[in-house]
């Protein structure tokens, strides 16, 4: 079939057709690569693979939109929620009356062919936003999609193949901040965890998410825990690593990004606090990461208070010491008046914390009054200042009385509990049954509304009167 035997033989005709009809066409070049899937080694030996790849790369360098339109990166500040589903889909550009317009897509290729072509495009400085668009189209087709490939597809969507794909795409992803929407990175990380991808793959995705964590929402951090050994509902360890990556890479002198992420962590804690299996150490470690990064700022503590309130409500079994440990991360001086008012009536909080909150309210009130007095230069306002001073003085007296009343209750309760403990240890049953006298233990039960036997657990519930049968 060569020119040795006769001119214009089959080999010459095939090469002429390949060079003049296949390579100049985008569609035919991709179809040729797909046809070579079954004879990949032979096609590579004949340089057919390199020729098709080179033709595709050259066309993309001339027109990057062949890879798809760049994704629109929607931040958390966008109010248009109607287009959320289509926010990250490339825009479809219609071209009428143009021959050989793209109908074939690179995402149809298998990963052994797709990966080197994309890598070559990156090396030749194809705009990265177009490369990222093609990568996520590939993921949508072979990993994120619920539909399985047909018999003619070069890939299968089995678990092992999906893991290979997601590891390869992670290696190809650009490192630049903000180029890829964080919601897609989060989706990719969750898939990598489910598919048990290599540690390097998951670490790389966590680093990318950490670089732009200030653009994330709580939903992006709700990564379900995997494996039978996982007790908690969400993968909080992964969130910790993402937070550490963000703080270690944050180089801006503007602390607004730190405040945004701290508020994100507060909302995340409020979301996961309803998990009954969320451990105390996990809650505290996440809260401490948030607090340490925003030290010295005027960040409001209402979000942290809300998370603590939910955690204490869902974990009623905590001891007094553990409840105080939870409240240790709360800065009462940065709580709003509404939050302080709620906390002052919150029975789930330890008494010491409630007193501390009331004391901080008193200090705020005193500071506000002092600033008003110092900021009034006109002597004609002297009378008004005196009236305000009198009013604030009354309010301070009332607050001080409330704090003293609360403190006296605490001291009294501690004394009574200590006396009750000694009474139980002494086991003075004769003293308890003395006629005409009320023991300290019985007095305590009366005060607590608990007049039933020591062996009955629900002492606040009155026993129904049972009449003997007639």
In short:
The chain is mainly alpha-helical. It is 58% helix and 0% strand.
Write the layout of secondary structure elements.
Blueprint: H1 10-22, H2 26-35, H3 40-45, H4 48-62, H5 111-123, H6 128-144, H7 159-172, H8 182-194, H9 199-211, H10 218-221, H11 236-249, H12 256-272, H13 280-293, H14 302-314, H15 320-327, H16 337-344, H17 351-374, H18 382-426, H19 429-432, H20 440-447
Helix pairs in contact: 2-4, 4-5, 5-7, 6-7, 8-9, 9-11, 11-13, 12-13, 12-14, 16-17, 17-18
Keywords: Coiled coil, Ubl conjugation pathway
Organism: Solanum pennellii (Tomato)
Domain NPH3: 100-364
Supply the number of helical segments.
20
Order of helices and strands: HHHHHHHHHHHHHHHHHHHH
Average pLDDT level:
76
Structural class: mainly alpha
Kindly state the number of beta strands: 0
Terminal CA distance reads: 117 Å
Q: Helix amount, in percent? A: 55-70%
Largest sheet: none
- The fraction of residues assigned to DSSP E strands is under 5%
Shape: elongated
Give me the Rg, rounded: 35 Å
User: Spans of 5+ residues with little confidence (pLDDT < 50)?
Assistant: 74-86, 90-100, 147-152, 154-159, 434-438, 451-466
